[in-house]
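Hi R.,

Quick one: here's the Type II secretion system protein K sequence you asked about.
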Amino acid sequence: MSPRRTQRGAALLTAMIIVTLIASLAAGMVWQQYRAVQIEAADRARAQSAWILQGALDWARLILQEDARQNRSKAVDHLGEPWAVPLAEARLSTFLATDRTAATDDEGPDAFLSGTIEDAQARYNLRALVGGTQVPALEQRVLERLCSQVNAPPGTAAVIITGLRAAFPAPASGASAPASAPATLSESGPLQPAGLDQLAWLGLDADTLKRLEPYVVLLPKATPVNLNTAPREVIAALFDGVDLASAERLVQSRKAKPLQNTGDAAPFLPPNTEIGTGRASVDSSFFIVTGRLRLDERQLQQRSLIERQGLNMVVLARERINQLLDRGATP
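And here's the predicted structure, written out as tokens:
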């Protein structure tokens, strides 16, 4: 082979290598630019979603504040009030469009908002199981009845009681702590759960927590159960000798006429049923606000715990869950 032909082959090979390197660098730059655009779009969507959900939370606080104003003379909370009406999923595209008159179904992001306000005191508060030197026998029976009603595994009530009392130990002096007093930290026990979902730290599985969720709650302090909003299962478990049929009669009656005081529940319960002071009420101070924003194939859910202190709505806890929806499934 002549030297001239060898030089031509080497030059061609060098040119091919250079073209390959340039193409690889260009592809890498395009990919980095694409990723940067995707990250920026995701950050923008996350920020927009957070602002929308914050607006929904503020709207819920205004509703609860207005309800407090109307009930200033006599505090009664029931499921016939505006706060108890859920917000059905509504499309936000027309509101997010720059020109509302020109907005169509194909313009703007596919954003849908829905939400609910739930009475946290419609559920049995597990805080009643801690704070003293011993578990009150009545409160233990209440939890055992609830666990039985939801078909929880045997021994679930004992696991909850043991775990909670280890996480929230009684004061060293042996005296019962006030309901409003801050919880005592445990140096050797499990972490103190802040909500029902964190009871998994105590050894409960996800299925058991899902079964208990509609009926129990863990609030920062002891609270009575609101008989105007509690489901029949909670009412039946709350008092000794009350069955589901009696609780159902109370639930059906309050739809037509909400209870004005705890004594109004007596005609619907078995004779001699003791409605203890501090264990039942007809008003509430704690509410759970849930907002859901569906944006394209993603759904962002925010759950907030609100304590109503007069006309002041205090957000005690907030949790956000980002979910990737199945495009073929109907949300």
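The mean pLDDT is 84.

Cheers,
M.
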